[in-house]
Design a protein that fits this description.
Blueprint: H1 3-22, E1 23-26, E2 30-36, E3 39-44, E4 47-50, E5 56-63, E6 67-68, E7 72-77, E8 83-88, E9 91-92, H2 97-102, H3 107-120
Antiparallel strand pairs: 1-4, 2-3, 2-5, 6-9, 7-8
Amino acid sequence: MTMTTIISILIFVLIVSTIYMGIKIVPQSKEYIVERFGKYEKTLPAGLSLIVPYIERVAHKISILERQLKEFKISVITKDNVEVMLESTVFFRVTDASRSVYRIADVESAIDTAATSIVRS
């Protein structure tokens, strides 16, 4: 093999890998968060999407399916001073993927805490 053949093969492989890195196929039940140089750029919805290779990257893959937290039991006191044990479960779905990644550290823990305080009040 000559040197020009080897260089041609390397350039071809680089072009094919760049195209492969730029095409993203997002499954129906997910959304991808894209960062450009470590900063939020956009959210890719389900389907075929294009990103700029080497500059942008898929940082997070968020499931937008409905999820269920573990059942929790709490004791509450009614207006007439009777203690009641409640069993409750929470179903939730992420509607804004970027906010669920960048605005809160642990989504499930935050929803559990919010649900418990709402049920108590």
